[in-house]
Amino acid sequence: MSLPDKAFPVSWDQFHRDARALAWRLAGLNQTFKAIVCITRGGLVPAAIISRELNIRLIETVCVASYHDYVNQGDMVLLKGIAPELMENGGESVLVVDDLTDTGKTAAQVRTMLPKAHFACVYAKPKGVPTVDTFITEVSQDTWIYFPWDMGFTYQEPIAKGAG
Ligand SMILES: O=P(O)(O)OC[C@H]1O[C@H](OP(=O)(O)OP(=O)(O)O)[C@H](O)[C@@H]1O
Ligand SMILES: [Mg+2]
């Protein structure tokens, strides 16, 4: 598999705005969440923003590794599971947070551990949409999202390079 055709670069400002929009959406559910389980590593950043906005202080991680060479998804490896007390009652009142759902495999794997939890992510691609309960922005499946923590400043060729 090669890199998707379209690029969706996200700045820190935009990510903060979108993660805060997700927090507003979750606040509107009028549901009390007793804990956040964030899917590392991408879920750590929105979890920090959402935990601040919703005043959730109990934060757990589930550590899943799957994308071993940038775009190609290898086997999923569970590096660290979830504290047993948060898995009681299928994870009822637990909020699971990730930066995005793409094929939906990561969310589906975590759902097997927390079937009754609420799954939220900032961005979603169509294949992943059915695996989450709440998200903010959908991008097409052939789009690659570039997160600010993966980026650096580089020279950009003019769009009309060579012209004039
Ligand atoms: O819906 P999927 O096709 O499973 O893809 C979505 C997952 O892929 C990315 O994580 P990644 O496995 O790249 O690891 P990272 O969060 O540690 O960067 C992203 O943060 C999601 O967790
Ligand atoms: Mg991830």
From TrEMBL:
NCBIfam families referenced in this protein's UniProt entry, alphabetically: PRK09177.1
Pfam families noted in UniProt: Pribosyltran
Gene coding for it: gpt
Stated name of the protein: Xanthine-guanine phosphoribosyltransferase
Location(s), subcellular: Cell membrane
Subunit and interaction comment: Homotetramer.
Species name: Rhizobium leguminosarum
Domain Phosphoribosyltransferase intervals: 11-154
Annotated binding of xanthine, by residue: D102, I145
